[in-house]
Design brief:
The chain is 32% helix and 26% strand. The chain is an alpha/beta fold. A hairpin with a 3-residue loop joins strand 6 and strand 7.
């Protein structure tokens, strides 16, 4: 029997995803937007890794989104205020972008679903410009919590940490 990969799970629940997660994701997005205030211009390129239906892609700049769950991405492009602007079906560990092209990289409540957290973070760092700002969040109750924190600390300088109801949110350089 095939294991239930995260992307299969999210494809399976795609029709009810926003009903399940929209409110909590919008709370996290508000915290991230406040932390990134003044760091994002209209001309900025932002990558949302694990963008799902685009709930966390609501920024006033050029937004690229990557998610392995095709059905969630399809829901993002069917919305009236289509965000991300450029959705791509891809896993975090294999981002199909050139090096150093994003001003901001975010990943909201997705790190715990990466197959290889370190490789996913390496890819996010690879596509970020030298002065890129990273906003990373993951479930506090994840069994991978300590691995995720260790992997982040090995690769980034943590500038701010917010403990939200369900997530730990880190703003990094």
């Amino acid at each position: 029997m095939m294991a239930n990969k995260p992307e299969n799970y999210y494809d399976n629940i795609s029709s009810g995803y926003e009903e399940l997660h929209k409110e909590e994701q919008e709370k996290k997005l508000a915290i991230i937007k406040k932390a990134l205030q003044g760091k994002i211009k209209k001309s900025s390129r932002l990558l949302d890794v694990g963008c799902g239906t685009g709930i966390t892609s609501d920024f006033d700049c050029v937004v690229f989104g990557a998610d392995p769950a095709m059905k969630l991405l399809q829901r993002s492009v069917s919305k009236p205020m289509k965000k991300p602007d450029f959705p791509v079906c891809a896993e975090a560990e294999h981002l199909p972008f050139k090096d150093w092209i994003f001003d901001v990289v975010i990943s909201v409540t997705a790190l715990q679903n990466f197959h290889d957290v370190g490789k996913g973070l390496d890819e996010m760092k690879r596509v970020g410009k030298k002065d890129c700002v990273f906003a990373l969040s993951f479930l506090k109750r994840s069994g991978k919590k300590w691995v995720i924190l260790k992997e982040i600390k090995e690769r980034f300088e943590i500038k701010d940490e917010v403990e939200e109801e369900k997530d730990i949110i880190l703003i990094c350089k």
